Amino acid sequence: MSKKIIILNGSPRKKGNTATLTAAFKRGAEKAGNQVTEFFLGEMNINGCKGCFGGGKDCNSPCVQKDDMDVIYPVYQEADIVILASPLYYWTISGQLKTAFDRLFAVAECNPNYRNPKKDMALIMAAEGYGFEESEYWYDRLEKHLGWKSIGKVLCGGVMNVGDISENEKLDEAYQLGVSIQ
Ligand SMILES: Cc1cc2nc3c(=O)[nH]c(=O)nc-3n(C[C@H](O)[C@H](O)[C@H](O)COP(=O)(O)O)c2cc1C
Fold first, then answer.
1. What is the position in ligand 1's atom list of the atom closest to the CA of 12?
2. How many of the other CB atoms lie within 10 Å of CB of 13?
3. Hey, whose CA ends up nearest to atom 20 of ligand 1?
4. Hey, where are the domains in the chain?
5. What span, in angstroms and rounded, lies between the C-alpha atoms of 23 and 37?
6. How far is CA 113 from the centre of its chain?
7. What percentage of the chain exceeds 70 in pLDDT?
8. β-pairing verdict for 35-40 and 4-9
9. How far apart are the C-alpha atoms of 80 and 123, rounded to whole Å?
10. Which of 30, 36, 93, 125 is deepest in the core (most CB within 10 A)?
11. Would you say 177 and 28 are in contact if contact means Cβ atoms under 8 Å apart?
């Protein structure tokens, strides 16, 4: 059955290595009949969470802050699978992805027990080196805490500049992850 997939792409480089990985993933997922929506968070106006615990009153626009998260919320709520995509920045995910993810707390606030909607998830990352441990730790904790299910991780080290990833075998891994979603 066709799945709805949201990609939260935290790279500011729309033609960068992370975006090349997500494009390969998207090609595979769409080939398998799924519906994919990708957000390039760096070009959106998304403020940091205020920690006010005042959201969740209107589930169509659950945060007290009104910005581009209002475009993401309905797609996120509908999605079966959430793809967290980011370059490695100082041994963790980019601020763009973290900022947007924090703001998804407003959706949990729609539930009286702060229960998050159940999703499958995957992690897609690119980096100059190979130090993905901290990002994986964050992702694995998230999976456990949210009660989500990881369907895979595509972690591509050894890529620094735009274009470095072309011909990289991780592109096929990303594509195959997409194709595997049925
Ligand atoms: C602010 C900043 C911090 C970075 N920190 C790391 C790092 O800790 N480890 C690493 O291997 N690469 C690091 N990099 C390199 C990027 O992860 C690498 O260039 C990656 O390919 C960028 O992905 P993109 O093309 O999707 O933007 C950093 C780059 C920037 C701009």
1. 27
2. 16
3. 127
4. 11-44+81-103+110-179
5. 11
6. 24
7. 100
8. parallel
9. 15
10. 125
11. yes
**Ligand 1 site: residues with CB under 6 angstroms?**
11, 13, 16-19, 87-91, 126-129, 131, 159-160, 162
To test the ligand 1 pocket, which listed residue (11, 86, 90) has its Cβ within 8 A of the most ligand atoms?
Answer: 90
Confidence of residue 16 (pLDDT cuts 50, 70, 90): very high
- The residue written with tokens 């009286």 in the block is 112
- As a CATH number, domain 11-44+81-103+110-179 is 3.40.50.360
Q: What is the DSSP string of 37-94?
A: EEEEGGGS--PPP-------SSTTS-SSS-STHHHHHHHHHH-SEEEEEEE-BTTB--
Residue-level pLDDT at 1: 79
